[in-house]
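Summary for the steering committee. The consortium agreed at its last meeting that each partner would contribute one worked example illustrating the joint modelling workflow. Our contribution is presented below. We chose a case with several input lines so that the handling of multiple components could be demonstrated. No manual editing was applied between input and output; the record is shown as generated.
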Amino acid sequence: MFGDLRRFDTGVSPGADWFRQWLDEILSAESAADIRSVPRGSFPLINVGRTDDAVRVYVLAAGLTTEDLEIHVQDNVLTLRGRRDALPRDDDSERKRPIFRRERFDGEFVRSIGLPDGIDVERAEARCHDGVFEIHLPKREELKPRRIEIQAA
Amino acid sequence: MNDVTRHESQAGVTARNSHNSAMRPPVDIYEEDNALFVVADMPGVTRESLKVEVDDNLLSIEGEMHIDMPEGITATYAEAMAQRYARRFTLSHEIDTDTIEAHLEKGVLQLRLPKKERHKSRRIEIKAS
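What follows is the complete predicted structure of the assembly.
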C-alpha cells in the first residue's frame, strides 16, 4: 500500500519552482486536485492526445535513450520510470566546478497517468527521437467509432 | 505540442502569436576548463529547427519542436503548452563569442562558451606578511 503511494512522488521540481508551487497552491486552494497531478514543470512533461482508434502519449524526456525509460501499463495506469543524470559527474573532486544554475531535472523519476478505458495493451508501441517518446496505445476494436447503416424498412 | 497550437499554425495565424507561447527550457550553467557551459533541455528540437544566436552580448536560444502527430488528434491532457522553446542570456565581456560551440543530442543542447585568452583565471599568490 505504501509502495503505491510512492508512485506519485515525483520529487521536487528543479530550480526556483517554489514560486510556481506556491502559485499552484494558492490557485487550487478551492478546487480538488487530480490524485495523480504533479506540480508544473515536473520531469518528464507528458502530453496526451486521442484519435478515433488510439491514444497517443508524448513524453518529453530530453537526454534519455530507449534503455533509460521504462514504460508500464497496468489497470489503465501508465507508469514511466527512469533515471536521468543532468550533468556528467564532476570527477575532479579537488577543484569543484562552479555551478551557476541548476534547473534541469537530476536523478530518478516515476510518473503515472490514468488512461481512458478500452486500451489494447498488447498492441501498444513506443518509439523515440530527439528526446521525445511517443507511446501509441490502440483502442480495442469493439470501442472504435463505427458507422451504423440504416436499413430500409 | 497540443493540438490547439498545432491547428492555429496550420490555419496561418501570425508568427507573433506563436512567439508568445514559447516555453522556457530549463538550463544548467557551470564553468569548467576556462569555459562556461550551458545545458538546456529542448526535447523534440532537431538540428534544423534549432537557432542559437549571439548579438552583441545577448545569447538567444530558440527551437521548434518537431513531433509527428496523426491527423485529427485531439489533446486530452497537456503539460507542454507550446511548440517552441526560447530563452535568452546576457553574456559578460570575458566570453569569446566567436568560438562558441553548440551540440544537440537527444533533445539536450550543450553550449560551450570559451573565455578569452586574457581573461583566463590566474591564481593569485598570497604572500606572508
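Strands of chain A lie at 45-50, 54-60, 69-74, 77-84, 99-102, 107-114, 125-129, 132-138. The two ends of chain A are 58 Å apart (CA to CA).
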